[in-house]
Structures
1.
Amino acid sequence: MEVSFDKVLDKFTKVLKKSNLRMTEQRKKLLELIFDSHDHFTAEELYDRCKARDLGVSKATVYRSLTLLTEAEMLEAHNFAQNALVYEHIYEHEHHDHLVCTECSKVVEFTCEAIEKYQRDVAKENRFTFESHSLNIFGLCPDCQRKQKSK
Amino acid sequence: MEVSFDKVLDKFTKVLKKSNLRMTEQRKKLLELIFDSHDHFTAEELYDRCKARDLGVSKATVYRSLTLLTEAEMLEAHNFAQNALVYEHIYEHEHHDHLVCTECSKVVEFTCEAIEKYQRDVAKENRFTFESHSLNIFGLCPDCQRKQKSK
DNA sequence: GTCAGTGCAAATGGTTTGCACCTCA
DNA sequence: TGAGGTGCAAACCATTTGCACTGAC
């Protein structure tokens, strides 16, 4: 666990309180599951983990909680593929972009200050405000390159 | 029309032939609609234009043709939002990235050689092959900034 | 006690597919 | 003439929603 659960719980509780929302057993259980590892995951995968551990959290609650955590800026949703959103932690994590393997879907994070800077320049040149960006580089990861060669 | 229809028709016909596929009336009509402007569009929008002009092309054929044109590398599909793929011409057009307005969904194209170069470097550093990338910068376009101020 | 949260099942909406009929090469 | 193409409606699948019940504060 990269961030202490207490800290995560505290943060989410405070964000909820601001909007007059409540901390519930289900939300607590989901938080624990989500921040237990730093993996990228889909709503469906999270729900499967709930079922596997018999947490008694419904699919609807999983989806609703992911939306809340994204609004709270504790998670970020990515459109790597068109079929399902992929979530990842952003609470207490530096911003980064992604290398995505087109074969096995493995995701590797990277940061590049120079690219960040040029993006701001581009937005300014076009008189757009800079809210956010998504940069994904697609290619074969080292493992899949090896597998492909040995075919 | 930015590319002559004859050229587009010729290209698609050749690609189809390679896979033992046929040029049909429906595919011809869709090509004409698609390459008549350089706008970004969704499958649904294209289908609506078909209906408006009474072209007699079904939704299934629209979807199937968009897939074929993407495979033929005449169109590219983008995941700007999670709800619908947005298509654009890439045949006879330079590669570029996108500024997307978070308010009105307007898309502005840009190219930045420096960013392209850094991306290749990042892929190499992580021993990924470089197949493609998607870079989208999200913010408010000039028009929407103006509207927001005057509220 | 009240209002938000939950589970369930049904609805949604973009996209895909099975199938019988049609048509290009 | 036969394989590929088409239209239609049904299926899919991630996600959302309506509703009656439950529970946090």
2.
Amino acid sequence: MLDLKRLRTEPETVAELLKKKGHDFDVAAFSALEEKRKALQVDTESLQNERNTKSRNIGNAKAAGEDIAPLLAEVDDLKATLQKKEVELDVIVGELETILHGVPNIPDERVPEGADEESNQEIRTWGKPRSFDFEAKDHIELGEARGGLDFETAVKITGSRFVVMQGEVAKLHRALVQFMLDVHTTEHGYTEVNVPNMVNAESAFGTGQLPKFADDLFELKDDRGFYLIPTAEVPVTNIVRDEIVEADALPMKFACHSPCFRSEAGSYGKDTRGMIRQHQFEKVELVQLVKPEQSKQAHEDLTHHAEVILQKLELPYRVVILCGGDLGFSAELTYDIEVWVPGQDTFREISSCSNFGDFQARRMQARWRNPNTGKPELIHTVNGSGLAVGRTLIAVLENYQNADGSVTVPLALQPYMGGASTILFP
RNA sequence: GGAGAGGUGGCCGAGUGGUUGAAGGCGCGCCCCUGCUAAGGGCGUAUAGGUUAACUCUUAUCGAGGGUUCGAAUCCCUCCCUCUCCGCCA
């Protein structure tokens, strides 16, 4: 959520900045509503003031034992007039809120222009894609061969875009989770957290999934209105919702392993094969809650923390900066980390690291007490995947495959695989 | 699931219809006194808006949302949450 004050004082500037994100902010409509709101609010409040004053007089008169009948007559029609104004004001305020809730965050000046991922800019690469002396298979072929990855059974159990993992593949998946958590908690200073995998609407609003992206979420069909989390970002960031934390509590750094549930609305026909795009996948998420002046550096650090995982696994990757059109609703700046996937002969997103500035904090009312001012001020939120586990599994299987269909276990993972250096599918 | 109690400011805690945005305490900030690692005293200390050049003035907020009333932290209704006991349960 943007600062309403800024939107009021310089709507044209904001509209101009939002163009980079492909958002058309209707300044005329907004300003017209604002005019109405202002007039109505002044009217309403002066009526409220009148009511308060007269009510106080009635109280005083009553206490003094005077006749209050004439005073009551005075306020007779005040109530109805006031109620009418209040309803009108509520409607206008509601309309303004709807607009405000739908306005995306303003992109950082470093964000390149562009409509879609074609305009994303590569900022660095690491490692060299391996050249195979045999025909490299993709993870589907590797995994299905002997049942390590079983998509058909998952279709029976649930439906498309799910997978059943078995044997060494399931173990490798688990090993990746443990490995990532260990690196982040012991080497990067994150605190491990385990959080609810369902959230209420307030939390989903706080991080920006609601109200605009309800279709991307799985909503539980029960009158409590819970949602399955699309990422641990939602519950973890909301730890500080409606809180005022002391300055020395910041930065807070959390690492969280969780399943992620996405309806993938609008992605029909994309990545339908394999486990690139699933309705359920697991992820180790990194979240940092920081003072405003720390967020830019925290974002760089966090991205690096995610990269370290790929470096330790010796998987080639590149980092791209997302252009305006590809940038998410709540983010001001996002780096995507893309891992080399031999089966597709391309880089695929495995992590998305974003700085949200105060955008999520304002929605959540997450604040810290600034000792310099003594006042509560909004914090900044930063997060990123460290990493998406399913996609990391794909990358390991495909990059480490051998001609005989076995897969070499990356050195860093061997302690988590009982020392095994190679796996065969079941 | 059943029975009961309760949700008030950064924290604790008064307050059952009329200057209560809210006593008192703690914490915090500034100052004074004391001159020694103690204590005492004074003042200040919620949030979000509107209005104003500013001072001022003003509105809302006592879990959330409705209602009654000239007037609601206080009365009524619905919901959420916490605690205690019982039941159930991985």
